[in-house]
TrEMBL record:
<comment type="similarity">
    <text>Belongs to the ribose-phosphate pyrophosphokinase family.</text>
</comment>
<feature type="domain" description="Phosphoribosyltransferase">
    <location>
        <begin position="151"/>
        <end position="250"/>
    </location>
</feature>
<dbReference type="InterPro" id="IPR000836">
    <property type="entry name" value="PRTase_dom"/>
</dbReference>
<dbReference type="GO" id="GO:0006164">
    <property type="term" value="P:purine nucleotide biosynthetic process"/>
</dbReference>
<dbReference type="InterPro" id="IPR029057">
    <property type="entry name" value="PRTase-like"/>
</dbReference>
<dbReference type="InterPro" id="IPR029099">
    <property type="entry name" value="Pribosyltran_N"/>
</dbReference>
<dbReference type="InterPro" id="IPR005946">
    <property type="entry name" value="Rib-P_diPkinase"/>
</dbReference>
<dbReference type="GO" id="GO:0002189">
    <property type="term" value="C:ribose phosphate diphosphokinase complex"/>
</dbReference>
<keyword id="KW-0545">Nucleotide biosynthesis</keyword>
<dbReference type="Pfam" id="PF13793">
    <property type="entry name" value="Pribosyltran_N"/>
</dbReference>
<dbReference type="GO" id="GO:0006015">
    <property type="term" value="P:5-phosphoribose 1-diphosphate biosynthetic process"/>
</dbReference>
<protein>
    <submittedName>
        <fullName>Phosphoribosylpyrophosphate synthetase</fullName>
    </submittedName>
</protein>
<dbReference type="GO" id="GO:0005737">
    <property type="term" value="C:cytoplasm"/>
</dbReference>
<dbReference type="Pfam" id="PF00156">
    <property type="entry name" value="Pribosyltran"/>
</dbReference>
<feature type="domain" description="Ribose-phosphate pyrophosphokinase N-terminal">
    <location>
        <begin position="7"/>
        <end position="115"/>
    </location>
</feature>
<dbReference type="GO" id="GO:0000287">
    <property type="term" value="F:magnesium ion binding"/>
</dbReference>
<dbReference type="GO" id="GO:0004749">
    <property type="term" value="F:ribose phosphate diphosphokinase activity"/>
</dbReference>
């Protein structure tokens, strides 16, 4: 029996493409609020005896989190043999330790909630800091997928003679792999963060690559401060491009970043006007592989 894919509101377009790639049935989720503010969830599609994939990118997790949990529980209660979470973007990876006395370690709490509800988690480029892998947080099987080859292929097809730029030391391996895939040079900047919104960047000597187009690559664009600071270090070079995996662009970040680059492009892991790179095939391949395993 074919699998059933259920999108949370706002994820319909991504789920439609995913269902087509997986040759799965696309179901639906009806959600609304009762007058007292409680959430109502109804499944459209029969989960009996089937693998059910709930699709929900978690760029803004709090408002719809209970609907996500209710949908998963309903699918299981109605006879699903397996209920999986497909989260192109995975939230709550930031607070992975107690920085100040009394703080919640929300990454662990969130992982416990997801692990107690779903059978498997599939996501793309989670922003791991102090944990080497999602298995250090989640007690269910996890599939961590990487969008770097998709970014590399887009750069190769759309940017003549690129120079791949990593915005900080953490991006060394990532920027290097993108550059190696397309046979381009790369350089890495050094980030000095003074808080959530204050970032300084130091750049190596880039004068030998003045004939190339700098392309800043990053996994997440959230406040945008790092990207803005990186763009400032590329003055005197050809107009810079920016390619990111997860286009969060909180508050005024999109306005700030889009002014600094000739072009800003992202994957469709988070719905945004900058989306140009489709990662549905990456997730579809993982879902089908898991089903075969």
């Amino acid at each position: 029996m074919e699998r059933l894919i259920l999108p949370l509101p706002g994820n319909e377009a991504f789920a439609t493409r995913l269902a087509a790639l997986c040759r799965a049935e696309l179901g639906g989720l009806e959600t609304r609020r009762f007058p007292d503010g409680e959430s109502y969830v109804r499944l459209h599609g029969d989960p009996r005896g089937r693998v059910v994939d709930v699709v929900c990118t978690l760029a803004h997790p709090d408002p719809g989190f209970l609907s996500l949990i209710f949908a998963a529980d309903a699918a299981r209660d109605l006879g699903a043999v397996e209920v999986n979470l497909v989260a192109p973007y995975l939230a709550y990876m930031r607070q992975d330790k107690r920085f100040q006395p009394g703080e919640s370690v929300s990454s662990l709490s969130f992982a416990r909630l997801i692990s107690s509800t779903f059978d498997r988690l599939t996501t793309v480029d989670p922003h791991l800091h102090r944990h080497p892998a999602l298995s250090a947080l989640y007690t269910i099987p996890t599939s961590t997928l990487h969008a770097a080859p998709y970014l590399a292929d887009w750069i190769a097809a759309n940017v003549p003679s690129p120079l791949v730029i990593g915005p900080d030391e953490e991006s060394e391996q990532w920027a290097g792999s993108i550059a190696a895939r397309i046979g381009a040079p790369h350089a890495v900047l050094r980030k000095v963060r003074h808080g959530d919104r204050q970032v300084d960047v130091e750049a190596p000597d880039l004068s030998r690559w003045l004939d190339r187009t700098p392309v800043v690559v990053d996994d997440i664009a959230s406040s945008g401060r790092t990207l803005v600071a990186a763009a400032a270090k590329l003055a005197g070079m050809k107009p810079a491009q920016c390619v990111v995996v997860h286009a969060l662009f909180a508050e005024d970040a999109w306005a700030q970043v889009s002014r600094c680059f000739e072009r800003v492009v992202s994957t469709d892991s988070v719905r945004h006007p900058s989306n140009r790179i489709e990662i549905g095939p990456l997730l579809a391949d993982a879902l089908l592989r898991n089903l075969r395993d």
